[in-house]
Amino acid sequence: MPQRQDPATLAALDLGSNSFHMVVVHPEAGRFKVVDRMREIIRLAAGLDPQQRITPEASERALRCLERFGQRIRHLPRDAVRAVGTNAFRMARNSERFLRSAEQALGHSIDVVSGYEEARLIYLGVSHGLGDDANLRLVVDIGGGSTELIVGRRFEPQVMQSLHVGCVSLSQTFFSDGVIDARRMRAAVIAARQEFEPVEAEIAATGWEVAVGTSGTLLAINRLLSAQGWAEDGITLAALRRLQAAIIAAGHVQRLGDLGVSTDRALVLPGGLAIALGLFEELGISRLRVSDSALREGLLYDLLGRINDEDVREQTVRSLMLRFGVERVQAARIAVTCAQFLAQVGPDWLPADGESAKLLAWAAALHEIGHTISHSQYQKHGAYLLHHLDMPGFSRGEQTRLANLVRGHRRKLPTAELGGGAEAQHQLRFALLLRLAVVLHRARGVVAPPVTLKAADHVLRLAFPRGWLAAHALTTADLAQEADYLLGAGYKLKFK
């Protein structure tokens, strides 16, 4: 398939637990020319209250920032922008409400990604920044609320871990009043090591050859060590211990400016340094090279792949079909019928962009994966798997929508799980198309006839060739049963 022409401008946004970053680029022959960068300290993770809700103050800081970012990229088409929220978004109990306001402020959708997907994107960005060398590399990213560890070769990650320890969370736990002393620092390092202990054996077993660090924390530490003359060509354990002694001697975050630390970085440096020390001690790292490329660059390469029909989500769906023994021919039949139905009902009844059409096709491909657990209630088993599986390329919101489609493809429609509003209505209508396609192909050995589907308001009409329904009593009975299910969701199904 020929590649589509690259768009003139792309934008990637990393909405992290400590800071929000945006980069705007022009793609040039598979690389990117940076035309604009914006970064603001938001401290979203620090703005979670004891009930893990984003406070009004933190929300206001974030929304003002997103409005400024939005002024720069609001005019760009939807498929030229990718914005992702990381650990603080994952942790916040009121993230859905906040996301609605955030997307309105930005003018683009925001995907909340799992720790696994965050790790994949980080590795993708670092790998492109380092080039195509053959070393088996360990990539480390210390974020505000989580730390990602990835082992891979060239552009393929092999092991990915996302751990619940970040520079903001650890600084809040051990240095919330700004005081830094040897006892607190050692306790923080031990706490970090405890997080890394369960994955140490798996990481060591890979036999990684070189370690590469990325993120604001490790970049800041590397700059400090270089400025003090304590390390060259990367970060070493001896240099980290010299920095540890220096910040303990300073005694308070307000005095870290004497070492050349900015005010914003000083608030989270003690926790970030403790994590770095814990990593070196627990994983046996001797030297850590530092890369400027990270999640944002990974987003850009992933976005460019989607544009050029190299969408990693397609590969993920194919892998899941193989893993769970999905019958490919049956899935293909249903996907084709879903696409035909989507075209027939038209955008007035069901507005659908390319992403929505893809999601419907993927639901058709995966609607039977629950069979691997049990045929009974397999739609529920499939939905559970899709909610909880690690699915490279998919955001948490996409996984939820995909799971809801699979959950709703047979039996009673889960209208309560979809919520309310226009978006829920659209999801329900996508589920209706999938349901009808599944019913038509339920008798796998029978070739479904050409069928026309028309939809208006809450009425769907299926038209069959003359005499076909009379000759296929079982399909007629299935459609009658389906009409009862749809009536429970407020829709009428008519067929002739």
What's a concise summary of this model?
The chain has 496 residues and is of the alpha/beta class. Helices cover 52% and strands 16% of the residues. Helix 8 runs antiparallel to helix 10 and helix 15 (378-388) runs antiparallel to helix 16.
> What structural class results from the helix and strand content?
alpha/beta
Can you tell me the overall shape?
elongated
Overall CATH architecture of the largest domain = 2-Layer Sandwich
Q: How many structural domains?
A: 3
Number of strands: 14
Low-confidence stretches: none
The CATH topology of the largest domain turns out to be Nucleotidyltransferase, domain 5
Main sheet, how many strands, which sense, barrel? 6 strands, mixed
Describe, in plain words, how this protein is organized in 3D.
There is one protein chain. The protein folds into 3 domains: 10-112, Nucleotidyltransferase, domain 5; 116-295, Exopolyphosphatase. Domain 2 (Nucleotidyltransferase, domain 5, 2-Layer Sandwich); 311-446, Orthogonal Bundle (Hypothetical protein af1432), CATH 1.10.3210.10. It has helices spanning 56-73, 87-91, 95-106, 115-130, 167-175, 182-205, 216-228, 237-250, 263-266, 269-283, 295-307, 312-323, 328-349, 354-366, 378-388, 396-407, 415-418, 421-440, 468-471, 473-488, and strands at residues 10-15, 19-28, 31-41, 81-85, 111-112, 136-142, 147-153, 156-163, 210-214, 235-236, 287-290, 452-456, 459-463, 492-495. The chain is built from 20 helices and 14 strands. It is elongated and about 90 Å long. By secondary structure, the chain is α/β, with parallel strands linked by helices. The chain starts with 9 loop residues before the first strand and ends with a strand.
